[in-house]
Amino acid sequence: xxxxxxxxxSICTLALIVIVLMLSAxxxxxxxxxxxxxxxxxxxxxxxxxxxxxxxxLTESSDGVIVNRFTNSxxxxxxxxxxxFTNSxxxxxxxxxxxFTNSxxxxxxxxxxxxxxxxxxNQGLARSRASIRKAALTQKFPSIIKNEDxxxxxxxxxxxxxxxxxxxxxxxxxxxxxxxxGEPPMAHDGPCKEMYSIEGRFINELEHGTxxxxxxxxxxxxxxxxxxxxxSMVEYLYRPLTYDLVPLKQYVADYVKVVSTRHPFWNRTSxxxxxxxxxxxxxxLVSEANPQLYSRSIRGLCNANSSEGFNPQKDVxxxxxxxxxxxxxxxxxxxxxxxxxxxxxxxxxxxxxxPIRPILLDNWKGRDNDMKVYEYLPxxxxxxxxxxxxxxxxxxxxxxVASPRVVESIxxxxxxxxxxxxxxxxxxxxxxxxxxxxxxxxxxIPRLKEVLTSISEEKYMKLKENLRxxxxxxxxxxxxxxxxxxxxxxxxxxxxxLNMRLS
Length: 503
What we know:
There is one protein chain. The chain is built from 20 helices and 13 strands. By secondary structure, the chain is α/β, with parallel strands linked by helices. The protein has a five-stranded parallel beta sheet with strand order 3-4-5-6-7. A five-stranded parallel beta sheet has the order 9-8-10-11-12, with helices on both faces. A three-stranded antiparallel beta sheet has the order 2-1-13. Helix 15 links the parallel strand 8 and strand 9.
């Protein structure tokens, strides 16, 4: 009897071991089956061209620009495939995808109602593309756009008909789902004043404003927003003077891991229909925390440097707007009449950093009375008064390509002179910067005065008129207003989502 009693636990132990091995094999099989993320599920239609490389083509024909972005093709059932990119490196990507994936979430199949919602959503996008193509050809404005909303200077747009139709389609349909994960101040919040105010203003408007674009139903969303603030991360996680970005990158990696574990949406497309927004200089570096966020997701960045990974096909260049104390400086709220003379030819004042500003200062600082170029303004001299009294405002890049000086020049109606390399200008998928600014090669800085004085008075006045017209697109209003900076950034994101075909 004693030997039988001893034998019973042995049988139980053996059975338990067998059960554990069976479950382990099943789990391993499940993991392996989901480890090869099929990149054929994702392809991005490449109709948004690299605006910098195609600048010559873009200026030749304003009608052809947006048309080329939404050109019809018999290759796709919804008529949008122009040049699509298929990534076949599934094995290299799948490791990271699964590192952030809960296998139970990925294994879950979509319900019929979820499939119907996605089908309806894709059909709606196809109809939007068709209507935009038609408007691009006919140049007719949609009835949803009122006459007072239409900017009279058509020259500031690459294709006015396509832009206004696309904007109207965005207002009718575009839905954004904002993830609820994360806590303030590093998520769901951000700076609403000073240098990087666009981060907090965008987050707060999308989450707490009266916007029609946010949806509480993720299955009806066209795109998903990761509502963290890089500027806030720098404030709370970064140790000064260490240049250690590991804590910031870890936060972003953990955030993506959480949302990809709790929800199916990231893993469905490897993050392609997700976007982040960052104005801090380190935004592009922090986005490297997750390879899919960096290479597939839409990144809205002020620091839009095409030589450092910014991809105009999928990323969005956003304006850097400096709001002192959260407000537009009083002097810039009402610039003088267009016909009021401006005594100074050009103006710049700023610190010496980066490779371009030293060239500007070496050639023009204190050398010509028409060229008001300073490293530091003399005591008692007002920066914005100089802007308002100058015809051209020089905007050289510093360590990074972006500068709030560009938008300040627009507010002051002082023609921005872009002195930069590899800077993808804000909202350049829609706006023709050559119609309201001057771009000068860095190699031409020694002959800068010659370049500016060669611009006729007639052309200068046209630039100034266009600058006044485009000003509304760079204003940060509270609450947001149609066609202002918030809506223009959202429209750029909408364009990229339109340009994406997901199965």
